[in-house]
Amino acid sequence: MEVDLLDVVEQCRHLVKQALGKHAGEPTSGGLARWKHVVLHCFRLEEDHSYRETPNRLEYMAEIRDVLELNRDDLPDYSTLYKSFDRLKMWAWRALLRVPAQQHPQSGHAALDSTFFDRRRASAYFRQRAGRIIKTLKVTTLTDVDPLAVLDVHIAARWKHDTKTGPQVVRRNADDLRSVAADNGFQDWHTEYEIAAYDVE
Questions:
Q1: Lesser CB count within 10 Å: N end or C end of the chain?
Q2: Longest dimension (CA), the chain
Q3: Using CA atoms, how far apart are residues 120 and 138, in angstroms rounded to an integer?
Q4: pLDDT tens digits, one per residue of 59-111
Q5: Over 129-190, what HEC string results?
Q6: Helix 5-20 crosses helix 90-101 at what angle (to 10 degrees)?
């Protein structure tokens, strides 16, 4: 299916401003507003090109620059984009995840699961230069079982047991939940008691 890139960027701008709220206009690295950095990353990922290519492509896309409220002289350097991606806090990504998820009708029934994300695909030289020695991240997701929308994500470099991360994820979303299904790794007496206290099965 062909996707209209301008529509994607406009929708992304709308969602990002909605998700970040009062923080959307705050400047980040390079002096650009936070929402512009996030939309630039969405644009880059949608087009599947590198950080270095992003400013070059934008130079010839006047309509996209208009949506981003950028002139040709305002385009950030690729290194600024790269650094801003790393500097975005987890709360910003969670807010971005939450806004589109809330556009689906939610059933109130969710599934909780953990998996591991291997970072070893990045070269050892890059990890050493960037000062990153972590090879694997633990990712816990909360997914609505009806629209299959991901409601929340918890990412950790230090692998806490599921009985610690599970209640944390449920706690953040308790107002929207009626029941949570999870495997035995999430189950112990303390977890069941804490989740029941939020009136969630």
A1: N
A2: 59
A3: 14
A4: 999 999 999 999 888 888 888 888 887 777 777 777 777 777 777 788 888 88
A5: HCCCCCCEEEEEEEEECCCCCEEEEEEECCCCCHHHHHHHHHHHHHHHCCEEECCHHHCCHH
A6: 110
